[in-house]
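Example 9 (inverse folding). The structure is encoded as follows.
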C-alpha cells in the first residue's frame, strides 16, 4: 500500500501542504500553565522533536532537549529535584540551562563531563506555556500573539480548551476558517449561510470576512445580545502560524496549533467574550460571573462543537492517506490561500536550514567535540 509523499516528493500543493511542518522560529503554545506543577516534568513534542518541560522547586519553568547526555534516555521520564531535572537511570542532574550539574556515582578517575543540553526559551501568557523551538537568539525579537483583551484588571473572561487531533495541522487551519462546512454543525449552528465577502493575502497573513449569522443556534442564541453586537458578519485571519477571528470586536477567538508530526496536532482554543446577555432579559452578566459561566459553556457547547471539527479533521486525514493521489475540487478560494501560505513558509524554513548546513560544512565549528572527546 502506498503512503503519502514527503514534502520533497509531493507533486502538487495539496500533497505539499499535508506534508509541510511549521517554522520553529515562532512561539508555540504547548501546555496549560496550571497543568505543570512544581516538581513536575512533562514531555511536549514539536514536529517529531521531543522536549522535556519542567517546573523547578522555585516555580520557574524550563525546557530542555529530551535526552540525557549519558545514555540518551528521555529526561521526561525523570524527576525534578529542587532546581534540576534528574535522569531516572543513573541520576545525572541538569540545571534549567541544560548544563550537567550533578552525578551521584563515582567518576572512575575521569573529569566531570562538561555536558550541556539544548535549552529552549519558555514564556507563560494567557494561561498557556509557550516554547520557542527555533533559533534561541531570535526568540526575543519574534512577537507572540497580542491579545489586549486578556490582559490587565478589566480583561475579558477566557477559559482555554485543547484537543489532540489525529490530523495534519493544515487541516485544522482549513477547518476553522472555512465556513462552508456549516452542514457539519447543523445541531449547534455556530454560523450559517456564510458568504465570503473579502479575501486578502498579504505577507504572512490571509485575512477574510464572511456575512453570516454568528451564534444563531442552540443555547448561544439566548446569550448573544444582538441589540449591542452586530453578529451578522465575522472577520478571520490566518496570521501564520496562528488563526483568529472577531465578531464586531465583541466575540473573539484564537486557534494555536502545535504540530506533533504529519498526522497529529494539538490545538489550543482561546474563546473570549466581552459580555453575555442574561437570557430573555436586556441585562448583561457581571464580569465576575463570566469565567464560571465560560466553564459551563465550554462543557455544554464549545467542547462538543469542537469535537465535531476534530472528528471531521481526523476523517479527512484518513481519507487523504487513502486517496492522496486523487484530485480534489476545492471551491473556497480562502482554503487555497491558507495552503499556499503554509507551503511557502515551510519552503523558506527549509531553505534557511539548508543554507545553515552548507555554512557548517564549509567552516567546522571549533566548539563541537570530536567523537573521541565525547566518549572520553
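The amino acid assigned to each position is listed next.
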Amino acid at each position: 500500500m502506498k503512503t503519502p509523499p514527503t514534502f520533497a516528493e509531493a507533486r502538487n500543493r495539496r500533497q505539499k501542504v499535508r506534508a509541510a511542518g511549521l517554522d520553529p522560529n515562532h512561539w508555540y503554545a504547548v501546555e496549560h500553565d496550571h497543568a505543570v506543577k512544581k516538581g513536575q516534568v512533562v514531555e511536549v513534542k514539536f514536529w517529531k522533536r521531543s522536549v522535556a518541560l519542567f517546573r523547578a522547586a522555585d516555580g520557574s519553568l524550563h525546557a530542555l532537549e529530551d535526552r540525557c547526555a549519558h545514555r540518551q534516555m528521555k529526561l521526561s521520564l525523570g524527576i525534578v529535584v529542587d532546581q534540576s531535572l534528574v535522569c531516572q537511570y543513573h541520576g545525572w542532574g541538569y540545571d534549567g540551562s541544560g548544563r550537567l550539574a550533578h552525578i551521584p556515582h563515582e567518576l572512575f578517575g575521569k573529569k566531570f563531563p562538561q555536558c550541556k543540553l539544548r535549552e529552549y526559551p519558555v514564556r507563560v501568557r494567557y494561561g498557556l506555556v509557550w516554547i520557542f523551538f527555533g533559533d534561541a537568539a531570535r526568540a526575543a525579537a519574534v512577537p507572540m500573539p497580542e491579545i489586549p483583551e486578556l490582559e490587565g484588571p478589566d480583561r475579558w473572561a477566557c477559559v482555554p480548551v485543547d484537543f489532540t487531533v489525529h490530523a495534519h495541522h493544515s487541516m485544522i487551519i482549513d477547518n476553522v476558517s472555512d465556513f462552508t462546512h456549516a452542514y457539519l454543525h447543523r445541531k449547534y449552528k455556530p454560523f450559517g449561510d456564510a458568504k465570503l465577502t473579502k479575501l486578502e493575502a498579504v505577507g504572512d497573513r490571509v485575512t477574510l470576512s464572511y456575512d453570516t449569522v454568528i451564534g444563531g443556534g442552540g443555547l448561544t442564541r439566548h446569550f448573544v445580545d444582538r441589540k449591542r453586537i452586530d453578529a451578522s458578519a465575522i472577520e478571520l485571519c490566518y496570521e501564520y502560524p496562528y488563526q483568529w477571528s472577531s465578531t464586531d470586536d465583541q466575540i473573539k477567538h484564537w486557534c494555536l496549533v502545535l504540530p506533533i508530526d504529519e498526522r497529529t496536532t494539538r490545538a489550543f482554543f482561546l474563546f473570549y467574550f466581552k459580555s453575555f446577555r442574561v437570557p430573555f432579559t436586556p441585562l448583561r452578566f457581571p464580569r465576575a460571573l463570566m469565567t464560571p459561566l465560560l466553564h459551563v459553556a465550554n462543557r455544554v457547547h464549545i467542547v462538543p462543537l469542537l469535537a465535531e471539527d476534530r472528528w471531521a479533521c481526523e476523517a479527512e486525514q484518513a481519507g487523504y492517506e487513502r486517496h492522496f493521489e486523487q484530485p480534489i475540487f476545492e471551491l473556497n478560494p480562502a482554503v487555497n490561500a491558507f495552503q499556499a501560505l503554509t507551503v511557502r513558509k515551510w519552503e523558506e524554513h527549509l531553505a534557511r536550514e539548508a543554507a545553515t548546513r552548507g555554512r557548517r560544512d564549509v567552516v567546522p565549528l571549533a566548539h563541537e567535540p570530536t567523537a573521541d572527546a565525547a566518549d572520553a
